[in-house]
Amino acid sequence: MSYELLLDHIKKTTALAQVSGLLSWDQETQMPPKGGTQRAEHMGAIEGVLHARRADPRIPEWISRIDQDGLDIAAKTNIAEAQKAFGTALKVPADLAEALAKHAAKAQGLWAKARAAQSFADFAPALREMVNLKRQEAAARQTGNSSLYDTLMDDYEPGMKTSEISGLLADLREGLVDLRARIADSGKVMPTLKGDFPADRQMALARALPEIFGYDWEAGRMDIAVHPFCSGNGGDVRLTTRVDASNPFDCIYSTIHETGHGVYEQNIPGADSLAPAHSYASMGVHESQSRMMENQIGRSRAFAEYLFPMFKAHFGDIGVETTDDFHRAVNNVRSSYIRTESDEVHYNLHIMMRFDLERALIEGDLEVDDLESAWNERFKADFGVTVDAPANGVLQDVHWSVGLFGYFPTYSLGNLYAGELFAKMQGDIKGLDDMISRGKLSEPLEWLHRNVHDHGRMKPPAQLIEDATGHKAGASALLEYLNAKFGDIYGV
Amino acid sequence: MSYELLLDHIKKTTALAQVSGLLSWDQETQMPPKGGTQRAEHMGAIEGVLHARRADPRIPEWISRIDQDGLDIAAKTNIAEAQKAFGTALKVPADLAEALAKHAAKAQGLWAKARAAQSFADFAPALREMVNLKRQEAAARQTGNSSLYDTLMDDYEPGMKTSEISGLLADLREGLVDLRARIADSGKVMPTLKGDFPADRQMALARALPEIFGYDWEAGRMDIAVHPFCSGNGGDVRLTTRVDASNPFDCIYSTIHETGHGVYEQNIPGADSLAPAHSYASMGVHESQSRMMENQIGRSRAFAEYLFPMFKAHFGDIGVETTDDFHRAVNNVRSSYIRTESDEVHYNLHIMMRFDLERALIEGDLEVDDLESAWNERFKADFGVTVDAPANGVLQDVHWSVGLFGYFPTYSLGNLYAGELFAKMQGDIKGLDDMISRGKLSEPLEWLHRNVHDHGRMKPPAQLIEDATGHKAGASALLEYLNAKFGDIYGV
User: Fold this and answer.
1) What is the pLDDT of residue A475?
2) CB contact under 8 A, B34 and A219
3) What is the CATH architecture of B158-492?
4) Is the model's pLDDT at A227 over the cut of 90?
5) For a 10 Å CB count at each end of chain B, is N or C smaller?
6) Would you tell me which CATH number, out of the four given (3.10.180.10, 1.10.1370.30, 3.30.420.10, 3.40.50.300), belongs to the domain A146-492?
7) Which of B180, B319, B216, B304 is nearest to B253 (CA)?
8) Closest residue to A35, CB basis, from B33, B49, B236
9) Is B258 one of the annotated active-site residues of the chain?
10) Nearest CB to A31: which of B35, B48, B236?
């Protein structure tokens, strides 16, 4: 009986958290410009309710009366999640939780305006306040020998520590820098697309893709957003994408990427029950699903067989003649300003830079006033290019405006996980390349259901990946894949 | 200090109620088909929170400690609204409030499906449950000599009683039936449009209209819905419309109608403060704004001067040659199945029928199982036509599916109010027709701001109209307007 009361309580909390997610989706895709003031109040009010529900004193009472011996893993997970959320909520003052939610809604609008106006100074005061609030939150929640940054990262990757992710990223960095140097030394230049890519044609092609990757349109939709994202759960999982008339790959690969997220959310069994056990394992695992769809499958030579004819059908002459050249155009390696448009070799270098900068902001080693110059210096050092405009630099990502500190490293972790999972999948599924080349992905999807989606949140994320592959995740699987792929393309 | 605590509390409640409104908007315009199960949980969870906030025992404590003597009318209104909502919430069990919200979200989807399938039987069980829940709610709230129906109607038209609205409707009915008979006797047939009215052209014309009526696109948007409505407040007021390729007037006049609602919401001073004093006065007053825009202005001979050239520009040859003929086509009087497409002479006869049927359902004088035949009999009696399909009959309106009982009569009340307000406005503004014929509505809009919008909820609705016109509202102003207009058009 206590368990039923607890479960009913946390399901309603999940329902309200989903509402908050929908408000964010609406803000980024539908809301009119003058709706921002009220929306901040909406977000603050919902957060106040969520906070009070998570800190409800009946939660520990219910839990203390539950005999967990006879319960299944789902029930145990639900109890553990409620316990954890209770512990966190108890430490964070309600006023602070509400202030964070309201400030995020406001700061996001200010970020979008500052980005359009190419002015970091316009955004700096809002970011300063956000860093201040997140530092307060982390300080209130900090336990044991966790750093402020560890405390925040735990929201996105439960159990992950700065020391562990730093080690993984260092291994990855070494391999990537080496591969990049060999590619640069090759002197080879990849073909690029030339043609006419009107927005409506890009969207028509984009809309044809999610289904191939297992997305169910009856349980979702796709809209345009400044910064593509996926939002929702179970029977209502919404994708967003964007369109750049000069570069159709941005739209197409953003779409495939977000589809990977969406297919995960749509396929967690029991997701519409609102129980925490039936939600995603971590943001790192989430990102493994999106990146595998986008890269290991979407940017493969096999998928080029399928995608190239679609490009020709939608855009006519696109300036490349062969499937090999199309595949090379898809996998052009070069320094670029924008993380989300980056190739697989540079992508994680973008993340490492954000990881170091945001850690310094949260730990008090970098002031917001110095962030733009710190960004530009680091970018020059890592990418050999001078940032030409804030929208191509420090203002490119939405994350910090809405308080997502500790989130960026989960992107790289997701890449490592994707590398591990895909290597195992290749061994497990005979004729995988042939399936990919025909756009027939039901077997790899079933593999993902069985090894990832079906488990919801019922295993710790690192354990989930280890159980799927038979070993602890590291950088080597991803590096082997990248070395083989780009070694072949660039002949290095 | 007590007042500030109370105000902060009720503003957050308003914020959450606005969120609930946004969820409904999303459900009707954006949500994918499989999102319904979770959405019902979302609605139930929000309603549970709203109920608990409205019934918060601190509310009467705060109020008892406030010295109201020095407070302004806005503060007094806020206190009275909180007191009233507290009294209501205290009487309605939380379980019932949540069950109603969840059932509304489900029943709306079932209504839409049953409507598409032309099967009242598919919808009847959900409607039976809704009537059952609303009867329980009304019984729990009933006070003094109010009927169950009075109790529900009070949510939409505070203070209105069945006896009073029945008297107004009886006066109106007498005049309308007489006018209709004279029109029928005239034997005159109005011209009708003939042409090609593609959906995208209709929407292009529709999008050009709201601005003329004072709508601010920066604080709103327009989408397609099965049943047009307006949703939101202050800086975020969203319109919906629909498109019927065979009848462009449906789209155009639905748009103008909803714009009238939207302009009201956008122009209540302080609406974005979330304080109840700065919200609309009643649904009757709301409807007066939409109907005046749609009919007294939008279907006038003067506005035909403005709209006819727009029609020709958007659709080319539309089968009428003169402004007079266009005006006659706009004002074609004939029995039709659908309330929202009805002419001004028949419209209130549609309402009277719903008023009688829904009152019988709530008071226990009619069973849901007998509703379809009761509808069809009454329709035949009042309109002289046999209903040919449920979507043209008992399934045409969304209202009952979402529990809106007691709402329909506010439409007729709004028509009476529009008649009263427009008669006064005509006397007050010199050259009004000329302004309307040029689409220059700033003076009538200012008149509406001053006499209606500016007062928010700070006057009882009937008082608001009386203060604007100098006398109690009745049916005569509307009947005089209709007799003059259709007398002219039909020569009767």
Assistant:
1) 97
2) yes
3) Orthogonal Bundle (1.10)
4) no
5) N
6) 1.10.1370.30
7) B304
8) B236
9) yes
10) B236
